[in-house]
């Protein structure tokens, strides 16, 4: 196996592992306590302004390029609006230790859903890329989870995020 074939094989293996981990995380987000937990979970409303950070992961999916964003931090803000048709909102990104990925400093929710303690959002960015945010409640007004950004069908970046309700 030559170097290019090996690099392509490793890229495919890492992409498959990332998708598997994301699916396992979705399956593991079920409530564990009885009726009280169910009542609290069903009544959680994510509407409002949320602010926090994202930390870029260091596992790189493009073997021929250098990962210059490894460990970088960005400040993020999400505004969530609960409409009769579902959850919608806006995304903002700003500099912390690094510029936002591909200079995308804003986006709109393409889809969003809060199911129990689990939040899943797809954000459409200005350049046509999209990012998936997948997290769970961690206290009354905090959500922690993972994100993955895609461009042209390929995984560009992944990492962790944490947001807190700012009002």
What is this structure's SSE topology?
Blueprint: H1 3-27, H2 35-42, E1 48-56, E2 73-83, E3 86-95, E4 106-115, E5 118-125, E6 130-137, E7 142-151, E8 154-165
Antiparallel strand pairs: 1-2, 1-8, 2-3, 3-4, 4-5, 5-6, 6-7, 7-8
Q: What report would you give on this structure?
A:
- The chain has 167 residues and is α+β, with helices and mostly antiparallel strands.
- It is 20% helix and 47% strand.
- The chain has an eight-stranded antiparallel beta barrel with strand order 1-2-3-4-5-6-7-8.
- Strand 6 (130-137) and strand 7 (142-151) form a beta hairpin.
- 24% of the residues are buried.
Protein traits:
globular; 20% helix; Lipocalin; single chain; eight-stranded antiparallel beta barrel; 167 residues; disordered N terminus; alpha+beta; 2 helices
Q: How much is the average pLDDT? A: 80
CATH architecture tag: Beta Barrel
Radius of gyration, whole Å: 17 Å
> Can you summarize the main beta sheet?
8 strands, antiparallel, barrel
The beta-strand count equals 8
SS content category: alpha+beta
Structure, briefly:
The chain is α+β, with helices and mostly antiparallel strands. It has helices at residues 3-27, 35-42; strands spanning 48-56, 73-83, 86-95, 106-115, 118-125, 130-137, 142-151, 154-165.
């Amino acid at each position: 196996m030559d170097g290019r074939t090996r690099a392509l094989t490793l890229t495919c293996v890492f992409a498959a592992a990332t998708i598997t981990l994301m699916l396992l995380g979705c399956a593991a987000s079920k409530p564990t306590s009885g009726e009280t937990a169910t009542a609290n979970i069903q009544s959680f409303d994510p509407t409002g302004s949320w602010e926090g950070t994202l930390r870029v992961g260091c596992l790189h999916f493009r073997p021929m390029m250098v990962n210059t964003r490894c460990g970088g931090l960005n400040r993020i803000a999400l505004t969530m609006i609960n409409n009769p048709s579902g959850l919608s909102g806006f995304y903002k990104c700003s500099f912390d230790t690094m510029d936002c990925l591909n200079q995308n400093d804003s986006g709109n929710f393409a889809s969003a859903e809060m199911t129990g303690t689990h939040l899943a959002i797809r954000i459409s960015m200005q350049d046509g890329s999209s990012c998936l945010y997948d997290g769970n409640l961690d206290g009354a007004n905090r959500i922690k989870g993972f994100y993955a950004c895609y461009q042209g069908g390929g995984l560009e970046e992944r990492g962790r995020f944490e947001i807190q309700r700012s009002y």
